[in-house]
Amino acid sequence: MIIGHSISNASGILQAIDEPVAMLLQRTQKHLIGLSYLAITHAADMARSLNRVAALQTNGGPSMIRKRYIGGEGGIITLDVQVSRLGNGDSSYLVGTFATVNQADLVANADKIPQRLWLRAKDLLGVMRARDAALGADIFADHAWGILLLIYLSEAESWIATPPAIADHLALPATTVERWLRVLLGRNLIEPVDSLRNAVQLSPTGIRRVERLLQERPAETAARSPV
Prior knowledge:
The chain is an alpha+beta fold. The protein folds into 2 domains: 2-105, PAS domain (Beta-Lactamase, 2-Layer Sandwich); 114-214, Winged helix-like DNA-binding domain superfamily/Winged helix DNA-binding domain (Arc Repressor Mutant, subunit A, Orthogonal Bundle), CATH 1.10.10. The protein has helices spanning 19-24, 29-32, 46-54, 103-108, 114-135, 143-156, 163-170, 174-186, 204-214, and strands at 2-9, 14-17, 63-70, 76-86, 93-100. Strands 2-1-5-4-3 form a 5-stranded antiparallel beta sheet. Helix 5 crosses helix 6 (143-156) and helix 7 (163-170) packs across helix 8. The termini are far apart.
């Protein structure tokens, strides 16, 4: 359920916030205005929030972020926030729409630990790199999966995935990365590259599908044929 909105400047400093949102955060409007949104964001969600906001395209589509806030009484408050960037450059501003999260949904997803998914993504990317080093990268062509994993990891590791950074991390030509980014954008797996910040981020669809794959486990063979 939507409870209200906020407006921040380009640096993330709150300029206005609806009273119902302030009340849910256990603070007053007067106390919140002038604070950075990071000042009330749970430490474990800061990197992901920074990367999502940095990758917002000016006057483009919004980004949905489920994040935890530190309430004025010290408790943790989980909210869904849809954020859009309006205007240009330093004169742009961020508009946030806050919605409550269904408690049953939180309980149902409690086992989807972000750290576990991050470790699995890191392991998979590590295996790909070791494979390429041992057997030769030229005989494999799963560049799209490597790019998706790297973008996913960038949010957990507090760095912005730019096309040059992706090319450097995966040892790929810039033209190859650019070509695959166009394909991934066409499949709605990533957001349009922000021309101002040159940042790449997964779309909500991309996050959902990558995390679904990261939670998969290979089926064990029920029976083996006799030698």
